[in-house]
Amino acid sequence: MNLSFYIVDVFAEKKYAGNQLAVFSGADALTDKQMQEIAREINFAESTFITKLDVEKNSATIKIFTPEHEMKFAGHPIIGTSWVLMNTIFEHQPEKITLLVPIGEIPVYQSGDLVWLQAAQPEFLDTFSAEDFLNFSNLSSTDFNDTFPIQEVTTGSAFVIVPVKSKRALENLVLDKDKTNVWLHKHCKTSHRALYFYCLEEQKLTSRMLCIENNQLIEDAATGSASACLQAFLLKYNAPEIQIINHQGDFIKRPSQIYFNGKLTENHFDIKIGGKTQFIAKGEWEV
């Protein structure tokens, strides 16, 4: 059995930047175990598997896997898979499609060279003390931006949003893997446990996503799901409208640009995440 696959860079202004993604089409005959094994073999942050296409409705059902587990929602896989569908797989190249993932339907549209997703309504979970982070990071108490809370937020995948004052604090950030892992398991409300540090300095938004996977501390080059949570967080605590670019991946030499376009109106969050996708390669995968 052979599958067609595509490799793209997502949230990338040029090739070999942003976050890598492998997209497998015609994956309806694969088991979850097989998908997990393929994702582990590819070893990108995520791989996606298209299990159903509906050409008339411009929709597709996909499954998203990291090398370790399946994701209910993830931003860069949805953006990248949608780009492949709209520009390669769907012959009529629609500008709007719907992706079906475990949390439900995700509307996606393309405008110029940007693909945008509409995120689900956020949930704001527990808040935390900056003192906690002194135990497992090299941050000092003066590094935190105490204008904002430290809070776990989810729009499908949960992230602890951690505001810091400066890009320098972000760049120099170091975490203790074992202590971080203990804290995440003790405090996070969902099975998806991750930290999203950010600073908004001189109107430039910069971020870093770190989590524990396969017993390793890993950093993601571009995290759309975390960006959806961060956009919700900024709409709630900073301003009810936002149009800004989130810069992630700078410190691991995979610079990424994640476009924010959001609005908060009477407790309704209109959260849109956008980005450019660069085509890298295609081929056949033998199962």
UniProtKB/TrEMBL annotation:
It comes from the Bacteria. The active site is at 46. GO terms for molecular function: isomerase activity. InterPro entries: Phenazine_PhzF-like. One of its GO terms (cellular component) is cytoplasm. Belongs to the PhzF family. NCBIfam families: PhzF_family (TIGR00654). This is PhzF family phenazine biosynthesis protein. The lineage of its organism: Bacteria, Pseudomonadati, Bacteroidota, Flavobacteriia, Flavobacteriales.
